[in-house]
Amino acid sequence: SGGFAAALLDMEPSWQNSTGSINRATTPHITIGNEDAYAVLFPETGDLAQLAVRPEARRRGLGTALLHEASAIAGKPLRIQNVDEGHAGITSFLESVGATRTVRQYEMVRALD
Predict the structure, then answer these.
(1) Per-residue pLDDT tens for 96-109?
(2) What pTM was estimated for this model as a whole?
């Protein structure tokens, strides 16, 4: 993910999918797309670490095209982890393209004194 990537993100990725973690990964990964939409894919595992479409470029099929391209490169179903259920945009997009939820995760927070 290049310098333009942060401008496309609506929310901060989990630490596992942050740009810093991706850059430190020992498993090969690729970035596909352009300045309007991009995805970061780990082809060996089929993990899609980041997916972003510039707000003004949404609803034009760019996200769907990236998913198809990433799936073709990986040669297997994609895994998208750590999706924030509170973010209506990504959850409705993933539902619209037929993504299936396989796991639900709960997060707990405790304030330290």
Answers:
(1) 787 777 666 666 67
(2) 0.74
